[in-house]
Write a structure and sequence with these properties.
- By secondary structure, this protein is mainly alpha-helical.
- It is 64% helix and 0% strand.
- It is built from 6 helices and no strands.
- Helix 4 runs antiparallel to helix 5.
Amino acid sequence: MGLVSSSFGFLTRLDHYKNVLRAPPLDPSERNHLRVGLDGDVPIFPPLAMIVLSAAAGIATFVSGTRLPYLPDFMAPPSVRGGISLALVYWCAVLKHRCQAELERSGTEVNFKPAGKVVADRGPYAIGRNMMYVALMGVPLAGSIVFDNLWLLVSGLALWIYLNDVVVPAEEKFLKVELGAKYEEYCKRVPRW
């Protein structure tokens, strides 16, 4: 009986949180940010998605009993893998910092809230429109290298698919409404990735 009542309590709390996370649907022109939540524009916040996918890769490694090594022999020593991973994580941190600095310079907030009507198109954003996500995707890649674990590499691929097919289209749709012709011109000039 205790198991049934505790399961019911969990489901009741889960239903409550689903209702809390649901945002009322709004026309993109009537709001100044993307909604994150089960019924939002972006169902899962990208860093949380990365953590969930990495945890799934760890579970897959545990369940399968193998990490599925994929790197060539010359990268087999842990010191080589560690050095490459450390350099990649450092590069990702620098890129993320430069992206944040450019967003702040243009008066935009990082968390799906363009505060001004300015397109961030300098620094890393002169190379690609989603450079902050490029930095985010480097983390599971670095993890897959340091642990020589194909499951972690697959989690990075799943993260890229989520970003490319769910998050970025929602952002682009919102930014086209929010920033208009300036953003459309930026999209023609600078590639997505």
